[in-house]
Design brief:
By secondary structure, the chain is α+β, with helices and mostly antiparallel strands. It has 2 domains: 84 residues, Arc Repressor Mutant, subunit A, CATH 1.10.10.10; 53 residues, Dna Ligase, domain 1, CATH 3.30.1490.190. It contains 6 helices and 5 strands; from the N terminus they run ααααββββαβα. It has a 3-stranded mixed β-sheet, with no helix packed on it. β3 and β4 form a beta hairpin. α2 crosses α4. It comes from Gordoniibacillus kamchatkensis. InterPro entries: FUR, Fur_C, WH-like_DNA-bd_sf, WH_DNA-bd_sf. This is Peptide ABC transporter substrate-binding protein. Keywords: DNA-binding, Repressor, Transcription, Transcription regulation, Zinc.
Length: 146
């Protein structure tokens, strides 16, 4: 599916939740849909600041919260105190490079049996799960070999 199709779907979803689309919101959402880098709020701010000089990091963060509440963006926290954001809401997992910090998407059959086991063993009403794989990306491994 193209970014334009994803953007149109996101805009339609926001409209049904009563969220007004501002130029800043449009730019933030478009940026997230275009990038595969899982940016922080600060990185989004720095990328958009030339086009929106009056926009603050707080504006970016507040709009990201709106998108999270609307189910359009997922917040990724990995213990380094800087949340990253992902507009790809499909079932997928992440591989994190412990050297450069980049996050890579990978697909794997959703682990519904893990959710079912948690439900059965704990009585939880499971909302979902998250899986991360840690290691070294190919670029960092190449650098280390030379």
């Amino acid at each position: 599916m193209t970014t334009a199709v994803h953007l149109e779907q996101a805009l339609a979803k926001l409209k049904t939740t009563g969220v007004r689309m501002t130029p800043q919101r449009h730019a933030i959402l478009s940026y997230l849909l275009d990038t595969m880098k899982h940016p922080t709020a600060d990185e989004i701010y720095k990328a958009l600041e030339p086009r929106f000089p009056s926009m603050s990091v707080a504006t970016v963060y507040n709009n990201l919260k709106v998108f999270i509440e609307a189910g359009l963006v997922r917040e990724l926290t990995y213990g380094d105190n800087s949340s990253r954001f992902d507009a790809d809401m499909t079932d997928h997992y992440h591989a994190l490079c412990e050297v450069c910090g980049r996050i890579f998407d990978f697909e794997y059959e959703p682990l519904h049996d893990v959710e079912e086991a948690a439900r059965e063993q704990t009585g939880f009403k499971v909302k979902g799960h998250r899986l991360e794989v840690y290691g070294m990306c190919a670029d960092c491994a190449d650098i280390r070999q030379h």
